[in-house]
Design goal:
Helix content is 82%, strand content 0%. The chain is mainly alpha-helical and 133 residues long. The mean pLDDT is 87.
Amino acid sequence: MANLSAGLLWEIFKHVRSWLTNLNRASDARKQQSIAALRRLISASRETAVYIRQMNDTQQRDHAIETRLSLLWTELGFALEDLGINKLAKRCNINGKQWANPDHYDADFIKKADVSLERMEQMAHFILLTIRH
């Protein structure tokens, strides 16, 4: 969390401010759903990082794992969208599509979409901290 830029914090704050206003009015069950979805995002990020490390080490792709990652990220996108965490939902859906078809988006789009695993984890951690306080 220490390496979050001021720009990223401001971006997250703007997005999360209105969402948190609604979440504060929401039931405890809704808050728990949000926490669970954000934790699943962090787990998915780490699972994806392990697979990327495996691909780099072996120079081989595994379509079964890529299918799982595509579905995992897509389902996370749906869950976050249902909870109103739309910026992260959009990033998850992009990752899901990218794992399903690596040629779907060009490199420039991926860079601009800012869907790095590190960025997504940072956003999820920030939202989790905000929910708890």
